Amino acid sequence: MQERRSLVEFRLLEGPNLYFPRPAVKLTLDLGSVMELTTAQAREFAKNLGLAKVRPGPERSHFRQRFAARLVAHLVRRLARAGGVNRLAVRSRPGGTVSQLVIAFPWRHAGRAEALADGVAAVLDAAGQGERAIDQAMEASAFGLANAPLGKSPQLLRPRIPVVAVTGTNGKTTTSRMLGHIAQLAGRSVGWSSTDGVYINGELVEAGDYSGPSGAGQVLRHPGVQLAVTETARGGILRRGVGVAYNDVSVVTNITADHLGLGGIDTLDQLAEVKAVITKITRPKGWCVLNADDPRTFAMRLGTKAQVWVFSRDPDSPSGRAVLDDGGRVTTLLDGWVAVLSAGSDPLPVVPIIDVPMTLAGLSRVNVENVLAVTSAALALGFTVEQVAEGLRSFLPGENNPGRMNIWSLPTVDGTGELSVVIDLAHNEAGLEALLEIVHGIQPPGGRVLLGIGTAGDRTDDVFVRLGEMAALGADVVEIAHKSEYLRGRQMTELGELLRQGATHAGVAISAEHEAELPALVSLVGQARPGDVVALMAHQDRAEIDRWLTGHGGTRDSAETLRAKVSRAETAQPPG
């Protein structure tokens, strides 16, 4: 492809994506050549391309941007006809600035798709250069497209085994792991892919972030796998599309602020639109499992052809009632039990919530929701109530879910007593909120909270400021634990300053800053007194942290130990 001024990015999406439920081309275009035209020139350009009766609007305006979107869609279809495609679906949306536009259309052959993209950019580059230049660009582009080599075709996987796709802002990995555990315990050969890697029957076969299409591909191509559980992240959908043509069950945990400002996704509504892709490719006889307490997630029921199964902590939720009225199902809490509701049937009890270790004695609201989601998905896949209950009872936070809400007991440095340590990914505001919920839920009378904070550099500045504020309001001692491998092109000093700025808003000074997570933990533990709770937002040093805690006498809390801590903390709460 030649270098074109108007072409910012050409991307082949090899699976269902934000624009189409099938492979598509995504073009990011610089509209400068069209935005700078006078109104008369813009009309003339449109006329040269065969588009009459237009209202271009003023230069560099949003009116002009919308005009350009219509013009480019017309241009794409006209050039496509030169390549023998008489009907081509084209979708567009504004880019990051008023001078940018994103255009998408399906593709079957990479060579032809690239030639079409090049032709569109070549004609846009000719805008304002006169009718002859435009005609020449059109003629050359049409010729290039008609004679372009076909190139490769999309290698989209069409699964022959059941597939569960899991997405959402928080809880994806925990939900995927729990589903895999239930399936494995029930005798299925199961593979799952997540941000931690690719696992086959609980064994790590490929470490790394495999929450995109490559992870799904590895699981589905592995011999003997009978069920695939695929964690599906925002980035993979935007960069390459979903790795499979369809799924049997889709699960959306929640939609909260994370990674906004990246990849053209600036709002929660846009983020929800990306996450909803997996629900649109769920088979009609399959199930779409949605969080009924999250309005953006609940709204996804309107865009799926599948049956709807929602989960809610409130058994009288209006959204749950609406789903029941439409013939769907609801998983909720009744008298302390995880239970399933369906119209015309009595409630189906599954397991007492207190018996599920992942809920941390019922303390973790987020993990209660994850359990409800997992119960829904597992039953939708055909597992029995007994199999689901057994899997939920035997899934342990530390052993089966490393790095997510792992709670330890650790001797103090001076040996005079014991403290609690909570390790969690907590990579965004909702994650830190959930972490603080757990910390305060086990904080004994007179105990302090010592917190290490930090996240990857691909968050916006306001996220770091807000994390600093939340930490300062929720902890007695706050230190920064940088993630040197996840700076994403930013400087530690810059990120540290933003966190400090947030803490200052709450009237607190952050006491220290560390280049990695383990040194931050060592520092906080060194200051802790008997009864204190140390918490750390951890990701990159997780294995080293576990080894350090074990080497210094730390033990993972059993369900009984955790219940005792929760009970002790509850007795300290004032009545009412």
UniProtKB/TrEMBL annotation:
<dbReference type="Pfam" id="PF02875">
    <property type="entry name" value="Mur_ligase_C"/>
</dbReference>
<feature type="region of interest" description="Disordered">
    <location>
        <begin position="550"/>
        <end position="576"/>
    </location>
</feature>
<feature type="domain" description="Mur ligase C-terminal">
    <location>
        <begin position="413"/>
        <end position="538"/>
    </location>
</feature>
<keyword id="KW-0436">Ligase</keyword>
<feature type="domain" description="Mur ligase central">
    <location>
        <begin position="166"/>
        <end position="376"/>
    </location>
</feature>
<dbReference type="Pfam" id="PF08245">
    <property type="entry name" value="Mur_ligase_M"/>
</dbReference>
<dbReference type="GO" id="GO:0071161">
    <property type="term" value="F:cyanophycin synthetase activity (L-arginine-adding)"/>
</dbReference>
<protein>
    <submittedName>
        <fullName>Cyanophycin synthetase</fullName>
        <ecNumber>6.3.2.29</ecNumber>
        <ecNumber>6.3.2.30</ecNumber>
    </submittedName>
</protein>
<feature type="compositionally biased region" description="Basic and acidic residues">
    <location>
        <begin position="550"/>
        <end position="563"/>
    </location>
</feature>
<dbReference type="InterPro" id="IPR036565">
    <property type="entry name" value="Mur-like_cat_sf"/>
</dbReference>
<dbReference type="InterPro" id="IPR004101">
    <property type="entry name" value="Mur_ligase_C"/>
</dbReference>
<dbReference type="InterPro" id="IPR036615">
    <property type="entry name" value="Mur_ligase_C_dom_sf"/>
</dbReference>
<dbReference type="GO" id="GO:0071160">
    <property type="term" value="F:cyanophycin synthetase activity (L-aspartate-adding)"/>
</dbReference>
<dbReference type="InterPro" id="IPR013221">
    <property type="entry name" value="Mur_ligase_cen"/>
</dbReference>
